[in-house]
Amino acid sequence: MDTHYTATAKLLHWLIALMIFGMLGFGFYMTGLDLSPTKLELYSWHKWAGVTVFLLVLVRLAWRIGHRPPALPAHMPAIERLAAHAGHHLLYLLMLAIPLSGWLMSSAKGFQTVWFGVLPLPDLLAKDKALGNLLETVHVALNFTLIAVLLGHVGAALKHHFIDRDDVLTRMLPRRRG
Amino acid sequence: MKRIALALLASFAFAATTAHAVEYGEVQPDKSRIAFDYQQMGVAMQGTFGKFASALRFDPAAPQTASARIEVELASVDTGSEEGDDEVARKTWFDTKGFPVARFESSTVKPLGGNQYEVAGKLTIKGTTKDVVVPATFTPQGGSGVFEGALTIRRGDFSIGEGAWKAFDVVANDVVIRFRITAAAR
Ligand code: HEM
Ligand code: HEM
Asked: Per the database record, which ranges form the Cytochrome b561 bacterial/Ni-hydrogenase domain (chain A) (predicted)?
């Protein structure tokens, strides 16, 4: 059995990772701005990029269902295996729940999402200020949860590489030539 | 002789009341609404004004004599977000401190047939007055009448959104003001 993730899985992992780091920085930056045309533009771009991330995550999940990842190294104790699986499930869940909460928040606040100004997403919720504010809190809380889980995720990857010296990080990286 | 005079008077009075059988004028604020539609980043947005006062006189039998005066308290705007409400109160938008009220005052009312009317008048927002023509409909509803219509204005004409907001790429120039005013018969 191949010990690497498929090239598609790697591409999607790193593309989505880059986009999510961008979205986090972008999100915190834009909410801190005073209201201006630029801020409104940035909000739209945040929403469009967020919907794009959501679609990429769906593609990634479809690919994942058809392609099992390589088995975890034999040396890992059961508790670490459990943590790895739980952590990955949680990451997938957050990658879906964060954009969904953003979309529902926008809908409840009465700001429809029109993907890149072209494709209007349906407003699943009627305009409701209180619900909109609640969903904003949910969006923010999920983002902080994501940051916490990511710290663990990156920490685990680095531990595997530098302390355990196994192939967990390298199998998610491009194959070395030669 | 006295009886004849009385009868005459009574019939005059009757004629007068039938000519003005129903005049709608008692505005019912809870059944009235002023909203506005605009485009932001190409997305349709809606807002409302919570407070407005209107004085109406409308007799379907003599629409030419009708008149309307509507005063909107601009600080009562609801854009959907507190940040937006605070923003539009500023000098660059409505300047609600300097110009707290937007006013429409009719000059002529022209029946267009059916329940359609054309109301001409003056619209004053933020110190600028423009002649406008508002198409409106009138629908009797039980003991009251409902006036409905919409008017498209260009926010640039009234200096609504100056400075950084002056360009129309983020917030469009066209704003549709929609109203629905219910008035009871007097
Ligand atoms: C992977 C996807 C996403 C990530 C990582 C993300 C992240 C963030 C972050 C970090 C913030 C700042 C939180 C704050 O301090 O208020 C934010 C705010 C926001 N996000 Fe997202 N977001 C994503 C997707 C979306 C989507 C798809 C939408 C809408 C369609 C959306 C709509 C918003 C809005 C409207 C705000 C501003 C909330 C406010 O007014 O405070 N986001 N997002
Ligand atoms: C937003 C950022 C990220 C997200 C959402 C994310 C999510 C995920 C998920 C869901 C998996 C599980 C894949 C599967 O088996 O189905 C995974 C695997 C992996 N991620 Fe990330 N990741 C992110 C960033 C990073 C970063 C920055 C690193 C590098 C330090 C990293 C290193 C890895 C590695 C090495 C694996 C493979 C684990 C294994 O072999 O089982 N990830 N990632």
From this structure: 4-174
